[in-house]
Amino acid sequence: MNPVFIGIDPTAGRRPMDFAVLNEDLDLVQHGQGNLDAVLELARAQACAVIAVDAPQSPNGGLMRDPERRKSYGLPPESPKWANFKVCEYELRRRGLKLYSTPGEIQAAPKWMQLGFKLYGELRSAGYERYRPGSSAPKQYLEVHPHAIYATLLGHLPWRKDTLEGRMQRQLLLHRENVDVPNPMTVLEEITGHHLLEGELALPALRNHDELDALASAYTAYLAYRHVDRVTCVGDEVEGQIILPIRADDLKERYR
Hints:
The protein is of the alpha/beta class. It has helices spanning about 35-45, 65-70, 85-95, 110-125, 145-155, 165-175, 195-200, 210-225, and strands at about 5-10, 15-20, 30-35, 50-55, 130, 140-145, 230-235, 240-245. The chain contains eight helices and eight strands, in the order E-E-E-H-E-H-H-H-E-E-H-H-H-H-E-E. A six-stranded mixed sheet has the order 3-2-1-4-6-5. Helix 5 (about 145-155) crosses helix 8. The longest helix is centred in the C-terminal third of the chain and has 18 residues, at about 210-225.
């Protein structure tokens, strides 16, 4: 049974979710946008799939408020700093990888997080299990954070994703990881003085940042399933882990 690897980017819950589907050869077999029902229809149609979602999988479990756990991280036991973050969020933020803070109550979470919680719940109802390294379960889901994916693959912080250079940087990285995307360096051939002056800079070979985030998520799902030695699970297993496409020994203490 050949698996597929699906990346889903909820895009803050205000627009349709972007998704990308890769096969084992990292060919892009499907991509697009859809609401929750459409994305779930795609997930339910798979006999074997690993789905990576760019959203927290559960509310904050309050583990960082525990004085003993804080002490184990070298933090002042009674200090309020980091108390409102999940363990996985703390582990990324202390390395310079910025991301959200997940509230402890569902209703206190922003709409896009609530959409993510619902998506994970529906995936579980459809037979998907939480990812565990080395598991052979045919249907699994995992949590990812694209900014951290790009930073750990690059070894440094990427350019802003909403800039031309940031999009090209991300797509070039995926291209060099053998993901089925065009080489963005060909985009430079489309940038001419005439196009700039006329305001007609169409770049069909360059993916937008939501599409790139979905592709990076799908690629991380592929690594997690087929190359488990190349990923690291950050955070507490019960509270929710974020999967990074890098070996634990190669994870930097700080990304700049």
